[in-house]
Amino acid sequence: MILALLVGAAQAQGLTDLDRQIQSRQQALEELTRKEKDLKEELYRYSQAIEEKWAQIQNLKQKIAEKEEAIKECQDRQKKLESELTGLKKRLKLRLKTYYRLGPVGFLNLLLSSEDIGVLLARERLFEMALLADRRLAQRYQNRLLALRDNERQLLKEKSDLEVLTRDLRQELVHLESLREAKMALLEAIREKKELYKDLLQEILLAQKDLARIIRQIKSLEDQPFPPSKPIKKEDFPAYPLWPPVRGSHPVKYEEGPGIFFEATIGDPIYAPAGGEVIYLGVKKAFGEVIIIEHPKGLRSIIAGGGAYYKKVGDLVKRGELIGRVGAGGLGKEGVYYELRLGAIPLLPLEWLDKTFFQ
């Protein structure tokens, strides 16, 4: 009974530890889920920003294309004006040659010309007006060319500014895409970690279920006799026959467990039933101080009711060695409780004890 209680307590502690692990894993899963949600929101914002940058870049590319078209149109108009201006200069040069060839109206012209002076003066005036008109037209062409060149320079500057802005946007876009990739990698790592924690949690839950089943089995086996299909030959155990833990008292069946009870007085010596190793020493409610000695081949002696034990866990004892003295607490009456088990299976102690101590 005591061994079952001890094993049950250990298993219960195991359940408590598993509960803590389950709670810890669940909290970790909740934290990972929260981080996953935050990362998804960040990724959405990054995707929106990237789409906006792409839209801005496309808009700038369209504006650059428009500027290039305007620049080409401006350059074409300049070429046309330059061509017209070249033709005008040729005509002006021809007029000047003609004018200088004829010369100004003077005395010699009047003598040699068959035309009268009025016609000559009108022709001279006509040449002067034509030359003046050509000069004015050439000046207008020059002004228009200057305006077109200024417009071209402005268009080129605007195009350059747009290209700089496009490069800046592309750099921002690359940075955003890099950040998004890093967040996606982090999200993938969190998802993998979540799956790992889910698997661990599932394993712990299964372990908790198995442990609870084991505890139920231990409780159900607590007072069961050794299975008849596995008969025990006492002679095969070096500890047989065992000596009683106290002297001078005939043991009786203990009402609340598979063990037996020896009446004894406080301070009476307690002896080791057989050689073995102390594997447990502690206090159990309703039993007081408890010591467990493991003998060869898995045989265990559980002794309760001691007031003081002289051994500690790990000590080796010999058959009949003084290991403690009877105490007053735990059992409700003075004496010693003795239980014998093979592993976790309770045995009948009276069948294993040396009967000569009771004769």
Automatic annotation (TrEMBL):
Gene3D superfamilies: 6.10.250.3150, Glucose Permease (Domain IIA) (2.70.70.10)
Keyword Signal: yes
Signal peptide stretch: none
Record has Signal as a keyword: yes
GO molecular function: metalloendopeptidase activity
CDD domains: M23_peptidase
UniProt superkingdom: Bacteria
Coiled coil start-end: none
InterPro entries xref list: Cell_wall_metabolism_enzyme (IPR050570), Dup_hybrid_motif (IPR011055), M23ase_b-sheet_dom (IPR016047)
Pfam families in the record: Peptidase_M23
Keyword annotations of the record: Signal
Domain M23ase beta-sheet core: 258-343
PANTHER family cross-referenced by the UniProt entry: L-ALA--D-GLU ENDOPEPTIDASE, PEPTIDASE-RELATED
Protein name as catalogued: Peptidoglycan DD-metalloendopeptidase family protein
